[in-house]
């Protein structure tokens, strides 16, 4: 087991089909949901309910933790990345349309009707995270290269 190198962490984050979004509620208790990430102009984004716990929590405290994990080879191989940053919900119609289109590409679906439902609304599901720093650990030994091909295969096999 060893810390992951920067390029390994970025590789896992780029390939991940889902992430856990961690926030803190008003009582200080942790709150987490899973969602499918996508990128807009290099920023990690999600579509999250603008009426749910993440929306409420980020309105009070914009600090978020994104967790990405992967396993392969019968869980003998594993990697995990924690991205620490700040999140915000963005009510910009042009970004919202692009975001739904990008999520549609990731999931192989057409979300244009979903995008239209949120146009012109104050509460937007577009959640953008500016990552300040990342940490990661993996099952590779010191000096050993993380098997990104095996990681890629494992991520491709994860249920959608």
Automatic annotation (TrEMBL):
Residues 6-110 form the Pyridoxamine 5'-phosphate oxidase N-terminal domain. Pfam families: PNPOx_N. Signal peptide: none annotated. This is Nitroimidazol reductase NimA, pyridoxamine 5'-phosphate oxidase superfamily. It comes from Humidesulfovibrio mexicanus.
């Amino acid at each position: 087991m060893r810390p992951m190198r920067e390029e390994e962490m970025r590789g896992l984050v780029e390939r991940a089909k889902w992430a856990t979004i961690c926030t803190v509620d008003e009582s200080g208790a942790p709150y987490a949901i899973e969602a499918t990430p996508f990128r807009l102009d290099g920023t990690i984004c999600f579509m999250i309910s603008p009426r749910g716990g993440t929306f409420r929590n980020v309105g009070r405290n914009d600090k978020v933790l994104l967790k990405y994990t992967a396993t392969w080879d019968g869980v003998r191989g594993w990697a995990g990345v924690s991205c620490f940053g700040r999140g915000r919900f963005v009510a910009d119609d042009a970004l919202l349309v692009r975001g739904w289109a990008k999520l549609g590409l990731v999931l192989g679906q057409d979300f244009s009707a979903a995008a239209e439902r949120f146009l012109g609304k104050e509460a937007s599901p577009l959640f953008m995270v500016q990552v300040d720093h990342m940490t990661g650990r993996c099952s590779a030994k010191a000096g050993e290269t993380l098997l990104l091909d095996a990681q890629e295969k494992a991520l491709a096999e994860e249920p959608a």
